[in-house]
Amino acid sequence: GDSVTQMEGPVTLSEEAFLTINCTYTATGYPSLFWYVQYPGEGLQLLLKATKADDKGSNKGFEATYRKETTSFHLEKGSVQVSDSAVYFCALIYPVQGAQKLVFGQGTRLTINP
Amino acid sequence: DGGITQSPKYLFRKEGQNVTLSCEQNLNHDAMYWYRQDPGQGLRLIYYSQIVNDFQKGDIAEGYSVSREKKESFPLTVTSAQKNPTAFYLCASSIRQGWVENIQYFGAGTRLSVL
Prior knowledge:
Strand content of chain A: over 45%
Helix content of chain B: under 10%
Number of helices of chain A: 0
Shape of chain B: globular
Order of helices and strands of chain A: EEEEEEEEEEEE
Oligomer: heterodimer
Shape of chain A: globular
């Protein structure tokens, strides 16, 4: 079945560093792709999305480009802040039996030190 | 403000006890979902419902039950048959199924522990 693989965490960076969190997917069709963020003790919030190849999703300084040729959707930010410390989940959505299922990667914990 | 409300925030279960987690949404969404999150892991789908009075098993439905009597409510019961219930449970909803951008919105979660 369809699946998502994220880079292993935890990731620790200094404030203002450049961030990349790798995400690759396996899918039989052309799924929509998402990045969700989970702050401590909270539920998940949608960070950004892309629905077709070469689409770039962006929000709060984060970006990710849907690369069909490499089946990737890497998350990047040019200058991270302490407030970006959270767990980040890459996800895809695919159809199954008339419904649609969201499949998550295992999450990458990001810690930003001042 | 529209959103998804999960309660309680923390829940403790005794051996052999059934417990029910509440999920209410006022977003007028048709579809609702329950996920389980274990430490260091992604989310796994327990049950989902596309419309009122209809629901389907997800990937890990054993030991759980749900109902969907009202559009805005989708409670999850963790039964005594679930031998390892300690986890963080997340409820989500989306406008409708069958839509390519089916964005799911999440509640703040319920942390269940076994006494």
